[in-house]
């Protein structure tokens, strides 16, 4: 096995399952820290913790190859005062107790990956944002990201390398955003959302898992990394790709006013759809990481099991912004 032990804090959600499946053949054991017990599955076992206080779970971190912190309440909800408090607490408390435990251990994890979000950057339709020149935005979601990253730096961890992984919208077949977009397409509602000009910085679930392996294998890398495919697309383009690959000719658009009304009805926020996230993975690509899914058409084709995507010829989503895409080869 390549790794002896990988720990996934809060690993029972969608991304936790993706990472566990990816690493189960690469690690002798995978430990999931969860608030709920779960039956052991081969080399994947669950250890109960409360995400707030020290406990026996801390022994699982000893000499781990990788610790990945995935803790956090789903932001797909209305931003009421109650939900805001829960969103903050569900990220900050586990991150702080992990940091303190790592600080105190004699043999702490070699690498600590703390998930953050690419939404930390401002709404951008003028030029892309990267780790070096990107501009931090404002608002509740950005405040959460700033506090989350600050919590991971509260304690010094001289024996543990730290990475803040600013994740884009993860596309996969089993959960998260893609199945919901696909359902809209199947219902004939898969047109642009809002004016459709907002950028979507996405990453295929397989590349999300691979990026962590890459970071683990390169001990010189630490700090902030964007985890997004090198070719973001506008919302209009994303929906067109899903429609065409799935064979749907009709896709009714959803204007902003309708999205706002619908968001109240289903209990979410339009920011999740309408914010333009134009983010590039400069540091990963500068370090030599190669994305297997660079273009959204290839990612959607794989997810839908279509195979090589050769039925439609779309222009490059960055054709009007190549001068800004310094990391694209």
Give the secondary structure arrangement, pairings included:
Elements: E1 3-9, H1 14-23, E2 27-34, E3 44-48, E4 66-69, H2 81-104, E5 111-117, H3 140-152, E6 161-167, E7 169-171, H4 177-186, E8 199-200, E9 202-204, H5 205-217, E10 223-227, E11 233-234, H6 235-246, H7 256-266, H8 271-274, H9 282-286, H10 296-303
Parallel strand pairs: 1-2, 1-4, 2-3, 4-5, 5-6, 6-10, 7-9
Antiparallel strand pairs: 8-11
What does this structure look like?
It is a single chain. The protein is α/β, with parallel strands linked by helices. It contains ten helices and eleven strands. The chain has helices at 14-23, 81-104, 140-152, 177-186, 205-217, 235-246, 256-266, 271-274, 282-286, 296-303; strands at 3-9, 27-34, 44-48, 66-69, 111-117, 161-167, 169-171, 199-200, 202-204, 223-227, 233-234. The strands form three sheets. A seven-stranded parallel sheet has the order 3-2-1-4-5-6-10, sandwiched between helices. The chain has a two-stranded parallel sheet with strand order 7-9. Helix 1 (14-23) links the parallel strand 1 (3-9) and strand 2. Helix 1 (14-23) packs across helix 5, helix 4 (177-186) crosses helix 6 (235-246) and helix 6 (235-246) runs parallel beside helix 10.
């Amino acid at each position: 096995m390549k790794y002896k032990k990988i720990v996934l804090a809060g690993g029972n959600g969608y991304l936790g399952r993706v990472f566990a499946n990816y690493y189960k053949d690469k690690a002798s054991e995978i430990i999931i820290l969860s608030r709920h017990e779960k039956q052991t599955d081969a080399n994947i076992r669950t250890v109960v913790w409360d995400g707030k206080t020290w406990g026996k779970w801390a022994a699982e971190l000893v000499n781990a190859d990788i610790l990945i912190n995935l803790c956090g309440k789903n932001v797909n909800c209305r931003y009421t005062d109650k939900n805001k408090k829960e969103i903050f607490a569900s990220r900050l408390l586990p991150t702080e107790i992990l940091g303190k435990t790592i600080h105190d251990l004699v043999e702490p994890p070699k690498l600590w990956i703390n998930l953050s979000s690419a939404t930390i950057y401002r709404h951008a339709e003028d030029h892309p944002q990267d780790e070096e020149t990107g501009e931090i935005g404002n608002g509740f979601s950005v405040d959460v990201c700033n506090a989350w990253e600050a919590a991971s730096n509260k304690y010094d961890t001289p024996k543990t390398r730290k990475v803040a992984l600013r994740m884009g919208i993860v596309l996969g077949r089993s959960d998260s955003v893609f199945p919901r977009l696909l359902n809209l397409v199947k219902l004939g509602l898969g047109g642009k959302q809002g004016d459709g000009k907002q950028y979507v910085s996405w990453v295929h679930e397989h590349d999300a898992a691979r990026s962590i392996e890459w970071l683990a294998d390169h001990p010189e890398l630490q700090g902030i990394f964007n985890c997004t495919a090198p070719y973001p697309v506008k919302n209009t383009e994303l929906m067109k790709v899903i429609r065409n690959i799935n064979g749907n000719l009709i896709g009714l658009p959803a204007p902003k006013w309708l999205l706002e009304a619908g968001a109240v009805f289903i209990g979410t926020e339009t920011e999740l759809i309408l914010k333009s996230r134009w983010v590039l993975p400069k540091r990963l690509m500068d370090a030599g990481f190669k994305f297997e899914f660079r273009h959204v058409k290839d990612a959607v084709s794989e997810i839908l099991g279509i195979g090589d995507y050769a039925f439609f010829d779309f222009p490059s989503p960055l054709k009007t912004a190549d001068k800004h895409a310094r990391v694209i080869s």
